[in-house]
Amino acid sequence: MPKTIALVEDDLALRENYISALSKQGYEVAAYDTRPQAERAFSQKLPDLAIIDIGLQGEIDGGFALCQQLRGLSKTLPIIFFTARDNDYDTICGLRMGADDYLTKDISLPHLLARIAALFRRNDLLGEPQLAADIVQNGKLTMDAKRMTVAWDGIPVELTVTEFWMLHAIAKYAGHVKSRQQLMDESKMVVDDTTITSHIKRVRKKFVELDPSFDRIETVYGMGYRWKSQ
């Protein structure tokens, strides 16, 4: 049975493009252009995954409200923000409201499809037993590669899929410098150096919010990043 994706996007041309692209991948797509329209549909039946724009038909933050409603209906349904708004404030707001990933509309279609597949894979694996090979343990850090979960001193750290794999790339080989290219390879994305820097900054900030003394992620100027062993 095909996975169902809800696409909430008020730009007609974009909406039709992504309906076509996702349908070609075998997904069943239900598209909505307003928050009330999507909310009515979700109250009747939930999709397997939701892709939501933030600004919707005159509601500058309509997507945020929709995300909160969806998260109230399901704690595990994968939610992706897909928006033109590329700033730390909106990214952090979106993730705090329960989204699993935050992507900007300048990314490639293969990147979006990779994110969708990763979230479906994570949900499919949630009920499976943990394997030692999937766990990265380094001091207070625990990462589960199958479930894409992270904890610091036992407290969950909410990371996007991109942030998770970037962190995994450096934490798995503590003490080894990972170049920006290696981080892109690990997270299956192609972006500029500034975007990678922004991702790393957000990851650091999330750990510091839990532990003000956090200093495990080190920038090695001109080379990349590494996880400092304790």
From TrEMBL:
Tell me which residues bear 4-aspartylphosphate: D53
Q: Where is the OmpR/PhoB-type domain?
A: 133-229
Show where the Response regulatory domain sits: 4-120
Q: Read off the InterPro entries from this record.
A: CheY-like_superfamily, OmpR/PhoB-type_DNA-bd, Response_regulator, Sig_transdc_resp-reg_C-effctor, Sig_transdc_resp-reg_receiver, WalR-like, WH-like_DNA-bd_sf
Q: Which CDD domains match?
A: trans_reg_C
* Assigned keywords, A-Z: DNA-binding, Phosphoprotein, Transcription, Transcription regulation, Two-component regulatory system
DNA-binding region(s): which residue ranges?
133-229
- What NCBIfam families does the database record attribute to this sequence? marine_sort_RR
Instruction: Specify the protein name.
Output: Proteobacterial dedicated sortase system response regulator
Q: Which organism is it from?
A: Glaciecola siphonariae
